[in-house]
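Researcher: Final request for today, and then I'll write up notes for the group meeting. The sequence and the SMILES for adenosine-5'-triphosphate follow.
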Amino acid sequence: MSSEDPGRSAPRTGPGAAVDSTGALPGRAVAADTEQVSAADRASGADALTCHGLRYDFGETRAVDGVDLAVRPGEVFGLLGPNGAGKTTAIRCITTLLPVPVGMVRVFGRDAARERMAVRRLLGYVPQQLSADSGLTGRENVALFARVFDVPRRERAARVAQALAAVNLTVAADRLAKTYSGGMIRRLELAQALVSAPRLLMLDEPTIGLDPIARTSVWERINEVRAATGMTVLVTTHYMDEAEQYCDRVALMHQGRIRALGTPGELREDLRARRARTAGTPAAPGTAFTPASPSPSPSPSSPSLSSLSAAEPTLEDVFRDVAGTGLDEQSGGFRDVRSTRRTAARVG
Ligand SMILES: Nc1ncnc2c1ncn2[C@@H]1O[C@H](COP(=O)(O)OP(=O)(O)OP(=O)(O)O)[C@@H](O)[C@H]1O
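Model: Predicted protein-adenosine-5'-triphosphate complex:
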């Protein structure tokens, strides 16, 4: 039952990903087939993912409340939001791990409610929960996924080796996963998801709990594979800096709804223009004013409007603007201690 404010939630278009197919990658052959298909996907103009009116309730709790999304082939799309926003539930509906009780989800045109196996074959999924077995080697873990995802037997060994190479784990491949660092485990889970050559890779908080170097390494691997294959990536994250740096477009989700959608630059620029307008300052040349609900009056402790209008907003400022008041109280902010500890514990 969505009653989104159209001025704030209407999807805004932005430049899609420029897919670089020249990246030299050890695991390039992981998705050689995908490369062909991705070019066809892009040429056809079909969306990699479409959600329309997606809704999901856990009993009385409306976790996803009328989500509309269109992710283009080849782009890195970020689903951002605080704990409890509904990101994981939406992702689980898209991956067919949960049903689609209301609304529609399509992955490269396949209906997630009616063509579950076809959708699953198109997807790679790295969940928040640990998906690697600590008692197996890295290679054995990836081989297990190759079997589960029906990689043809005669191709398996090569595909496993390519997936491990793609995430820079060749040297450590025959060590037990329990000897891996948190960053290595994340990269191993990425290899598990890549071994089936997915056309849409879904990553739920891929870097939470990792140190900055490990975070960068995970993103570099994702980007290398994407550059080599044209794979589409849908990622959830709490880290606004990562979204800014790595996502072509983002959707800001709060209380089950998409509150804003666009490139990070567009969303920041929209907020800057709204602030400038509210403060009576002429917008910079080229600024696109977009319809939005009036900003609330500043509280006595708020920065003055003129100082706000002068500051360059961050993506987190945009989120606070579209989510309204009470974000911290309702959601625990962007680095919710509970979730961070839970997930950090699993990779630490
Ligand atoms: N299995 C469940 N049973 C009941 N309620 C649930 C269940 N899973 C999620 N919820 C509720 O649904 C809402 C959305 O949760 P969801 O996990 O999708 O949010 P999220 O944005 O992914 O949060 P996080 O960043 O913590 O993973 C929350 O109110 C949550 O408490």
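Model: The pocket of adenosine-5'-triphosphate is lined by residues 58, 61, 63, 81, 83-89, 339 (CB under 6 Å). The CA atoms of residues 96 and 117 lie 9 Å apart.
Researcher: Thanks, that's everything.
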